[in-house]
Amino acid sequence: MTLSIALLAALGGYLIGSISAARFVTRIFAPQVDISRTEIGSSKSDDKMVADFVSATTISMHLGTRLGFLTVVIDMLKIAIPTMIAKRLWPGTSTFLIVATTAMIGHIWPLYHGFKGGRGLSAVYGGMFAIDWIGVFATSLAGMVFGLVVFRDVLVAYMAGLWFVLPWLWFRTHDPHHLAYGLVVNVIFLLGMIPEMRQYLAFKREGKDADLAEAMQTTGMGRGIYKMGRRFGLLDEPASDAGDRPGGDG
């Protein structure tokens, strides 16, 4: 792999990753809705966590889980397809890992939208789908179990799948380039999550993290984590589900 190819792959990955699936879905299905600012919190509390990212999560909260899922699929494909193309064009090189990494950077800090994008979870799994598709399911499931059993925390269960990308890629490839990719995307993800993590930790110190956990059920993945946690007795049933909200999840 020459320097010019590496730079071309990096630039191409970033520009493609900068395409905002969330904004595209909103423009098609609900152009009147402003998704640039989302308040996350419980219906029982006036305290809210403010999120200014634009992603499948915000689509789920504003427009419902079906459009949120559609956004996830598009976000994953915009990373997976160019990564697969790079893998075929330059076999035996790490060019495709560069594409997957810089596309994730574009997803979080998009050139076309004032550097305000998503937080990168779907972007990582899109890259992983092209690199090792089995790892998408293995690492996300391991992260959910780890977060629920060890930390009993919904946000950790939501994020921890990325931590398992590192041992999974090493187990599958024993290649330092793949391991470096896993490490870099984890660092990028944490950097992107800094604003929300600060607010979340502040809420935990004040004992209000249950409010945020309740709000996460508005996303498809968050609802799935809650169902799994409650089924195995790892999470308490929220008061809103216990009787304040008829019909449960609907």
- How many beta strands in the DSSP annotation? 2
Number of discrete domains: 1
Global geometry: globular
Query: If you average the pLDDT, what whole number results?
Result: 83
Unreliable residue runs? 239-250
Order of H and E elements: HHEEHHHHHHHHHH
With strands numbered from the N-terminus, the spatial order across the biggest sheet is: 1-2
Major sheet, described briefly? 2 strands, antiparallel
Instruction: Tell me the structural class.
Output: mainly alpha
Report Rg.
Answer: 18 Å
Terminal residue distance: 52 Å
Question: How much helix is in the residues?
Answer: 55-70%
- Put simply, the count of helices is 12
Strand content: under 5%
Describe this structure in words.
The protein has 250 residues and is mostly helical. The chain has one domain. The chain has 12 helices and 2 strands; from the N terminus they run ααββαααααααααα. Strands 1-2 form a two-stranded antiparallel ribbon. A hairpin with an 8-residue loop joins strand 1 and strand 2 (49-51). It is globular and about 55 Å long.
